[in-house]
Amino acid sequence: MGSQSDPETYSLIRAELDDWQSYWNDLANASDQEIAIIGAARLDDSLDRVLQARLVDDKNAIKSMLGGRGALSAFGSRIDIAILVGVITPEFGWELHQIRKIRNNLAHTDRRQGFEHAPIRDLCVCLKFPVLVTDELKQVVTASPKERFKFTVSTMEFDLRKRVHTINRILTPVPSYRDILMMPTEKRDAIESSAVDGRLRLDGKVYDLKDQNGASSLS
């Protein structure tokens, strides 16, 4: 991934910002339930994108884990794995879990209930970032539980979308000699082509790729 100073990366981040601003304009007249559900869904989607940019580039494994009914298809599971693979900090993860709880409460409550009602109001009051901004902005974003929620979702989504374009991917581990023997022929041939005189130097050892018994000798 390019650094934030790269023109191409900057233009991608700028496009994300424009989309983010358009999103809130479209929700100007939305109900509290709609704001909570759609806001959390966009964070979930952004988290999915940054995880795909971070994890080893194995499309089948990513689809199996993140898609459909995969182990990491739920918002809560994605938050936790994102912390473990260094995509987000525990503090960022805590606020994402708060957003998830607010979404769950509003999605399963009477439509007459909203951000001003407990326990949703109390969950919104616990959101930390709105009280850390400048005093002038703080008056706006802490004016109501709904504004706290919207401001938190907005800043978190933009942060996650920026990381999609700047985060480094986890690399596939160096294969062991056993891994090489188990590989499909065409993949093994590609590795063998990098060997010299039929011997592959790997992890401080020299492997004789012509030895079908798997014998190896230390270099």
Description:
This protein has ten helices and three strands; from the N terminus they run ααααααααααβββ. The C terminus is likely disordered. A hairpin with a 7-residue loop joins strand 2 and strand 3. The chain is mainly α and 219 residues long. Strands 1-2-3 form a three-stranded antiparallel sheet, with no helix packed on it.
List the helices and strands and how they pair.
Elements: H1 7-26, H2 32-54, H3 59-66, H4 75-84, H5 90-107, H6 120-125, H7 135-141, H8 145-164, H9 177-182, H10 185-192, E1 199-202, E2 205-208, E3 216-218
Antiparallel strand pairs: 1-2, 2-3
Helix pairs in contact: 1-8, 2-4, 2-5, 2-8, 4-5, 5-8
Structural class: mainly alpha
Strand content range: 5-15%
Number of helices: 10
The global form is: elongated
**What order do the strands of the largest sheet run in, or round the barrel if closed?**
1-2-3
Helix percentage range: 55-70%
Radius of gyration: 24 Å
Uncertain runs are: 211-219
Distance between the termini: 35 Å
Report the biggest beta sheet as strand number plus sense, adding barrel if it closes: 3 strands, antiparallel
Order of helices and strands: HHHHHHHHHHEEE
Mean pLDDT: 80
Q: Could you tell me the number of beta strands? A: 3
Task: Give a quick rundown of the structure.
With 219 residues, the protein is mainly α. Helix content is 58%, strand content 5%. Helix 1 (7-26) runs antiparallel to helix 8 (145-164), helix 2 packs parallel to helix 4 (75-84) and helix 2 runs parallel beside helix 8.
